[in-house]
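Posting for a labmate who doesn't have an account.
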Amino acid sequence: APPAAMTRYLLAALLAVALVGPSAAKITQEEIKKDDRAIILIVRPFGFEADGSINIAIKGRGVYAPEGSPPADKSKLGFFITTSEAETQLEEYLSDGGCVLDNISVDKLFTFQDMDNNLKDNGTYRYTNTIAPEKAGEYSLFFANCEPNTLVSFDITVELSNKLPSGEKDYLSAGEKPLPMLYLVAFFAYVSAGVAWFVCLWRANSTEEGGVRRIHHFMGVLIVFKCLTVLCQSGMYHLIRTRGDPEGWNIAYYFFSSMRGIFLFTVVVLIGTGWSFVKPFLNDREKKVLMVVLPLQVFANIATIILDEGGPAIKGWFTWRDIFHLLDIICCCAILFPIVWSIKHLREAAGTDGKKLRNMNKLILFRQFYVMVVAYIYFTRIVVYLLKSTALYTMLWLSDAASELATLCFYVVTGWMFRPVVDNPYLHLNEDEMDEEGVEMVDEGRSV
């Protein structure tokens, strides 16, 4: 392939490695059909410990050169592993027109020529390699096509693993080993928070009629879906560790994670609009926000499933990755608008006679909630990513721990701020005031 094309493909693959992070480390199966890409990312980063192993099985190989051209040089079609630190060297090397398989900064595993020389009777080529102690680190597996205008086909099964103390295979990356226990601890933490929340609702219902609003039940459903999500993650990573495949737990995880995402954005939007607290309805402008956020969340969930299940080797995988990140950013920005509108409305109403103190209290609470939502989005979307990008490959679990801790804190503080208690300034509204403010906010929404 031309040097410029090689460079573009390599940069795209390395960017995917940086953005998506480590794979789930399950046994990978990919099917490549008449593909002309110069660089194909087969397996995302995997952290090898000493004596970790690489097992590859390939069958159904095919090389297709243009009609009338000489046969392709199969020594220029092959597989290699490399670290993220080699990125700069590879860019410079490819810009000079070299073949990535000849670069000293990559570890070439084998080529199509090697497969021809060692093909088994059933047409399957098998490759096994053990990581030496001094070579332990995080590697990604690539396929390189250095032959211009040449198409390739093959079916590949990749098994990357470390060793458990018992000597059995551990299919989790070095930085993912604590994840089964981490998510199990998170499950019990969220269950404790959920129990405390439902006890709070029960007590509020018992002591003050009408103190529990519909939004409080939405918040309870959100914590239930979050509990089920982290429980499925714990089970999924445990099965991947022992068997190399989640065996159905990933399907449950996708469902509960999707519902959790939809309810999270819905709850934040509804709290931001004051629905159920301040007024029992949404104006047209607020309904439009929900109509934008919820479908985007559905599409983002579909993109997530394709990213996780399809693997980076399929064409279009990078496009779905970009769609996911774009939709996630749009949703995060969209949920801030209702909070800003409510702050603006309360600031204007704070000077009204008879309601100044009450509106000022609500204004302060809304501002605190706005700052908290912004901080949560910034931390989980940027800080966690930076932590994952800069941490040692054996400490990548820290980014998951930080994300879950931030989420738990966000849930707990939000629940505390808007809990159904008598002295909550957010709930200090009599019926006349609620009707008056509801009409004002409806008029404001229609005037925009």
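Reply:
Got it, the structure tokens are right above this. The chain has twelve helices and nine strands.
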